[in-house]
Specification:
The chain is of the alpha+beta class. The chain has one domain: Trna Endonuclease, Chain: A, domain 1, CATH 3.40.1350. The strands form 2 sheets. Strands 1, 2, 3, 5, 6 and 9 form a 6-stranded mixed beta sheet that branches. The chain has a 3-stranded antiparallel beta sheet with strand order 4-8-7. A hairpin with a 4-residue loop joins strand 2 and strand 3. The longest helix is centred in the first third of the chain and has 18 residues.
């Protein structure tokens, strides 16, 4: 049966999420360039027709309610593409601009330094309580602003 995400291991789910994200960016007319080495937290670079490019980090989650990007990698990215794989359902994709972390007051997005962690992290709390807050970040709602180059904060570079 299709969409049995539990049949995939974590690496397969992550790879699926990255490929899906690349295809979605491509379907909206952006050019996609894959990084050969993922040592800075950048999974791929997307470029709109105006020449503006965006460094993208893809996070794929299934049963988890929380995912994060370490501070040292977060400062290298412009966009976080969150791919949510729910058993027996089509994937749902969200786009979060790096500048959204400073604007969010709902608790969906946070910046914390946990006592046992080496460095602070930028987190996404994908819980039932916060589902309504993430709807504005659905891929189809945000991609047009990247496509047109309408960005807020430090997002995007002319190239």
């Amino acid at each position: 049966m299709r969409h049995e995400w539990s049949e995939l291991n974590n690496q397969q789910k992550g790879t699926y999420g990255e490929y899906l994200a690349k295809m979605e960016f491509t379907m909206y007319g952006l050019s996609v360039f894959t990084a050969e080495v993922d040592d800075r937290g950048i999974d791929f670079v997307a470029r709109n027709k105006g020449g503006m490019h965006f460094d993208v980090q893809v996070k794929t989650i299934t049963g988890k309610n929380y995912t994060y990007i370490s501070e040292s990698k977060f400062h290298n990215i412009d966009v976080v593409c969150l791919v949510v794989l729910k058993e027996h359902s089509e994937p749902t994709i969200y786009l979060l601009k790096a500048s959204d972390w400073s604007k969010d007051k709902s608790g969906l997005l946070n910046y914390k330094h946990y006592p046992n962690s080496k460095e602070p992290e930028y987190g996404i709390n994908f819980t039932k309580k916060r589902v309504e807050h993430i709807q504005k970040y659905k891929f189809d709602n945000v991609i047009s602003s990247l496509k047109e180059g309408e960005v807020n904060g430090p997002l995007g570079s002319a190239g």
